What we know:
Blueprint: E1 4-9, E2 16-20, E3 25-30, H1 34-42, E4 53-55, H2 61-64, H3 67-74, E5 78-80, H4 82-87, H5 89-92, E6 100-102, E7 109-111, E8 114-120, E9 129-135, E10 138-143, H6 151-157, E11 162-166, H7 171-175, H8 181-188, H9 196-206, E12 213-217, H10 226-239, E13 249-252, E14 262-263
Parallel strand pairs: 3-4, 4-5, 5-6, 10-11, 11-12, 12-13
Antiparallel strand pairs: 1-2, 1-14, 2-3, 7-8, 8-9, 9-10
Helix pairs in contact: 9-10
Amino acid sequence: MSVKFATLASGSSGNSIFVGTEKTKILIDAGLSGKKVEEALKDLNLSGKDIDAIFVTHEHIDHVDGIGVLSRRYDIPVYATEGTWLQMPSKVGCIKEKNQKLIYSDENCIFNDLCIHPFDIPHDAAQPVGFTVSAGDAKIAVATDIGHVTRTILDNIKDCSSILLESNHDVEMLKNGSYPYPLKQRVLGKNGHLSNDAAGKLLACIMSDKLKYAFLGHLSKENNTPELAYETVSFILKEYGIEIGTYFKLFTAPRYGVKNPVTV
């Protein structure tokens, strides 16, 4: 069974990921307007009516902005942890009770032919999770908004076929940049965001024969560039003897729009 994977948006201005088979199509987060989500889906020859469910990592607006609109417009069920639901309603508006679905960390959620597995991540949100999505031999991991690498993260994202991994900032750019000091401390903190260096080392740590594609995502507009993120991570991978190009491919996820959709 093949699984299609694409980022619709990735960054502080909005995040949304598409994962789908012939039978089932889901979004992980919809952190931009419903209209923009629909525009991005057109690049995959899809629309909101094709989406069977939305799974939510956490309640921050850049991950939930369009969830309410899409759910109401197309009667889409929304899956989130209890802590996320408690913090999210005011941000997404009214969602039908029948479409408010609970997920539990470290418990599989079987949805048609997909197995969606939420796992705990360290981030300054109520009850945030990352996800793996499996179907047949394919396993896709979404690991963004993670302040530091934990054993739980490592255990869940190993042996994946494709991964969206946070590569939020360059540490020196952040330290010397225009962010106020408290915000710099938040980003650098244990519940903040993962740096380019940390992303490279984590990717090297989980590298296996199964991993075909890695996307560097949630890049900061102010404290990173796609070129710098790619260069830093690829340099670290080469230090570990990992070649990029033929068997394994590395991409940076664009801030908005579909680029380099893959099938695993």
